[in-house]
Design goal:
heterotrimer; A alpha/beta; B alpha/beta; C mainly alpha; C: mainly alpha; two-stranded antiparallel sheet; about 0% strand
């Protein structure tokens, strides 16, 4: 059961909104505007553009306030747990230390052991260290168990099943062990826990709406396009494999809008290299005119986010069974595609093909549940109709 | 004789402002019952009680022997009602309103409705919102009569209507009664209008039924007498003295309003030493006024 | 009895209902206006998929709002003249109160279907008018069904409330006000945070109403004409 932020946090946030309004009012006559409000004009100077970027620091300040509110929530939950009397226990599985309540210790040991053997069995970390976890079965989602050093927290709501609990444990262990992938090509490709949850229907939706002709070809059945869209293309991440020229233009201009530069047409507002690249992109001078504005790191504008890549890694680990994790992480110099194929114990093409089939099969039923919704609606309609028939005859005073 | 409408000791109160007390009313089947009373006396309230629109606090009500409100549905199928205020839908035309109303009554007489439409001078295509008060009144009557009711309840049907329309309305009612011997319950404060057509009369005042009797007795039963040398204290007399007033404030001659007077009673009067100078018949309106005066505590003189 | 009742309600409401029908027909067309122009197979279809879904999402709240407006208008108009004329006519007809209320409700519910039918037609025309990129599908029947159900729900709720006396309406209003006040004050009452109601009683009530099994759950489901 999730809780809303406590009153104090909400008061702080309300204060932040008031502060923002005041700031906006103070700078109304000046050049400080909220991002993405007015187009860049030829008269706007570089200083004014920089002031726009400064406004982002205001937003960053607000983010800090929100983080403080979250810390307050945790402190409150810890205090409440401290009021209730409990005693802690420590369980060791492989090189993991799990801090838990006495009442949860047996369950924690069982779960961690099972998950370790199934998904990580045989793995020896290149940098073994003290991996500490906390485990809590509770009706609330904030875990106040104190643990030193900072540990990976596993909180399993009381109503979740054993398989769901195992999934959480697997995800937590994967989160910690993902550090081992750190400097490797597969780590750079993945950048996250391969066991993170992602509903398959969401992946399909993401792909349909990716605004990428490469992803579109992938969905249509072209497996090499899938490989490229996932950032595993044999020629590296080529933007031309992902996007058409028009798609690149849309992305480039959107990216600029996000930092407050709304460009429609006309002369370059800034007379430098950046400005001329912007002009060429806006005017569609050449097919690759916008490439320079997309950013230095291709992964920052890849059509499929890292969370989608994680589903491929997840599939590879599932296919590979016991020892899959070891094969994925053992060679820090292995290319990402090779590492994934090795983990899955198949070729990359086969793996990506199976992944594509899994995505297509899991196309969400956009109108799922309409039958149930209809029945519920009809029941309520009949209920209110019955209520209306109770209209009384005695209407005069 | 059976009663089309019967109220027995009915009481009803609305807050502290108005109360109907112990109303026992009997409308004989086949009669034309005139329900008289000044404004605010409880006539419409009484009608709403037996029409099942108000729930009595005590007492019992029946129509054609069926209890109200338990058997309201079969009762209302036999009752044609013309309320005090029009209840028809302004957005409809006459023809549409007739069609709407007819769908609820199995005994609806389409031919009679058409005849009445012509006779009352109504335009079927006219929108009700644009009709005059008189035309609306005629429409309400048309709807009530075309149902072929056994009981016609008319609450101030001619109130605010010009004499021509009033005549049309009453003539349609009488025609219907002559054809069907239906019971008519008609309330009004226009006494002279009811005088010609009603054979029973009930009089309401201050939430009570102060009189209920056949019309001829009501009309003939109240007289104005001029009496001389009457004793100050009257012994028991065979008639009811509703009021007595000294003429010109001095002298021995008095004006008496009496009920239940018959000619031979002059000898009773002479027996107590009084002399009867004159007997004057009162019309219904005068009788009504004197009756109300006598029923109100501040004006009661007689025994 | 039903047909004249239906005709009566139609006569009272037609000038308002017709614009609603036009709006219901036009709304799907407005949603897809100018979209999906690129023929399939060109490189712009991937952009079109996103643009189509974004535009559908933009207009999405208008559909349930229109359904609610239709239902509420029909419900209030159903009892309008009865309230104004004091219910005398209805009470003088040889019908039980239950029969009268059901006839009225049926008549209004029939009229409530008209905008739904208009929307169904409009949704089919809109779906045929836009070239859908791969991965997207049109759901005109489902949208029309949701619209019809949402209209009927809002109609039946307001109809039931309008059929009551002034006293009943005041009780309902008092109850709603109490929940709102409790919700506003309750965020600062710590004992409520540990109760079954949770931190915010008002939010809890709203969540129940707007999600299953509450009556307004249909309003918060997927109203997309075009989706994956």
């Amino acid at each position: 059961m999730s809780r809303r932020p406590p009153t104090r946090g909400r008061t702080v946030l309300a204060g932040a909104w008031t502060g923002r309004l005041l700031l906006a009012a103070m700078s109304a006559g000046g050049a400080l505007t909220l991002p993405g409000v007015s187009p860049v004009s030829a008269q706007e100077t570089e200083a004014e553009l920089l002031r726009r970027i400064d406004s982002l620091t205001v937003l960053a300040g607000e983010a800090a306030i929100a983080a403080q509110a979250a810390r307050d929530a945790r402190a409150k939950a810890e205090a409440r747990l401290a009021e209730a009397e409990y005693s802690l226990d420590t369980v060791r599985v492989a090189d993991m230390t799990i801090v838990t309540r006495e009442s949860d210790a047996a369950e924690a040991r069982e779960l961690f052991t099972e998950v370790w053997n199934e998904s990580f069995g045989g793995y020896r970390s290149r940098a073994p260290g003290n991996r500490t976890f906390t485990y809590l079965r509770a009706a609330y989602t904030v875990d106040p168990i104190p643990a030193r050093p900072p540990a990976e927290r596993v909180v399993v709501p009381t109503w979740q099943s054993r398989s769901q609990a195992k999934a959480r444990v697997r995800s937590a262990i994967g989160q910690v062990l993902a550090e081992d992938l750190g400097g490797s090509p597969v780590g750079a490709w993945l950048r996250r826990n391969p066991f993170s949850d992602r509903a398959p229907g969401d992946v399909y939706r993401q792909m349909v709406l990716a605004r990428s002709s490469g992803v579109e070809r992938c969905l249509a059945g072209d497996v090499p396009s899938c490989t490229a869209a996932l950032g595993l293309g044999p020629d590296g991440n080529t933007v031309s494999a992902w996007y058409s020229p028009e798609e690149r233009r849309v992305r480039a201009l959107e990216g600029l809008e996000r930092v407050g530069l709304h460009v429609t047409s006309g002369p370059s507002p800034v007379g430098d290299v950046f400005g001329s690249a912007l002009a060429r992109c806006v005017d569609r001078a050449t097919p690759d005119a916008c490439d320079a504005l997309l950013g230095g790191d291709p992964d920052s504008f890849a059509p499929l986010p890292f969370s989608v890549r994680a589903t491929l890694a997840n599939l590879a680990l599932e296919r590979g069974g016991r020892g899959a994790w070891t094969r994925l992480a053992q060679d820090p110099s292995m290319a990402a595609g090779e590492a994934l194929a090795g983990a899955a114990d198949s070729s990359l093409e086969e793996l990506v093909s199976d992944w594509r089939a899994w995505v297509v099969e899991s196309r969400p039923e956009a109108q799922a549940g309409l039958g149930g919704d209809s029945v519920l609606a009809l029941v309520w309609i009949l209920f209110f109709a019955a209520l209306a028939t109770r209209s009384t005859r005695w209407r005069f005073a | 004789m059976s009663n089309a409408i019967q109220l027995s000791d009915v009481g009803w109160r609305a807050g502290s402002s108005f109360e109907l007390r112990d109303v026992s009313l009997n409308v004989p089947t086949g009669s034309i019952y005139g329900f008289l009373g000044p404004n605010g006396s409880g006539k419409t309230t009484t009608i709403r009680l037996f029409m099942g629109m108000l729930k009595p606090d005590r007492g019992s009500i029946s129509i054609f022997g069926r209890p109200v409100p338990r058997d309201m549905k079969p009762i209302l199928a036999r009752v044609g009602y013309v309320p005090e205020r029009p209840h028809v839908y302004p957005s409809l035309t006459v023809a549409e309103q007739v069609r709407y109303h007819s769908s609820f009554f199995r005994l609806w007489d389409e031919g009679w409705a058409k005849e009445l439409t012509g006779r009352l001078g109504l335009d079927p295509d006219q929108k009700i919102a644009r009709m005059s008060k008189g035309e609306t009144g005629k429409l309400l009557l048309l709807l009530a009569l075309s149902q072929r009711p056994d009981l016609l309840v008319l609450d101030e049907p001619t109130d605010g209507l010009d004499p021509v329309v009033r005549r049309d309305v009453m003539s349609a009612v009488l025609d219907y009664v002559s054809q069907t011997s239906a019971t008519v319950f008609i309330s009004s404060h226009l006494v002279h209008e009811l005088e010609r057509i009603c054979d029973w009369v009930g009089v309401m005042d201050g939430g009570q039924l102060v009189a209920e009797l056949p019309m001829h007795r009501f009309k003939n039963g109240i007289k104005r007498l001029r009496v001389a040398d009457a004793p100050h204290v009257l012994e028991e007399l065979p008639f009811v003295v509703l009021s007595r007033q000294s003429d010109n404030g001095w002298g021995s001659t008095e004006t008496w309003i009496v009920r239940g007077w018959e000619a031979p009673m002059r000898y009773e009067l002479e027996g107590v030493g009084a002399t009867l100078r004159d007997v004057v018949d009162l019309d219904l309106e005068e009788s009504f006024v004197e009756l109300l005066r006598s029923s109100r505590p501040s004006t009661r003189h007689g025994s | 009895m039903y047909q004249p009742m239906l005709y009566l309600h139609w006569k009272q409401i037609r000038l308002v209902l017709l614009p609603f029908m036009v709006a219901a027909f036009a709304l799907p067309l407005v949603t897809v206006a100018g979209l999906g122009g690129a023929p399939a197979g060109t490189t712009e279809t991937a952009l079109n998929a996103y643009a189509i879904v974004e535009m559908v999402r933009f207009w999405l709240p208008v559909f349930p709002a229109l359904a609610a407006a239709v239902g509420i208008t029909l419900a209030l108009s159903a009892w309008n003249w009865d309230h104004r004329l004091g219910h005398v006519y209805a009470l003088s007809l040889p019908l039980s109160r239950t029969e009268y209320a059901l006839l009225k409700m049926g008549a209004g519910a029939t009229l409530a279907m008209l905008p739904g039918i208009a929307l169904w037609l409009g949704a089919h025309v809109a779906s045929a008018a836009v070239a859908l990129p791969p991965g997207l599908h049109a759901y005109p029947n489902q949208l029309a069904l949701r619209f019809a159900l949402a209209t009927l729900i809002s109609y039946s709720v307001l109809f039931a409330m309008a059929s009551g006396t002034v006293k009943t309406s005041m009780w309902i209003l008092a109850g709603v006000s109490a929940v709102v006040v409790l919700g506003i004050l309750g965020t600062d009452w710590t004992f409520l945070q540990d109760s079954a109601l949770g931190t915010d009683p008002l939010q809890t009530v709203i969540d129940w109403l707007m999600q299953g099994p509450g009556p307004f759950e249909i309003f918060t489901t997927n109203w997309s004409l075009i989706d994956v």
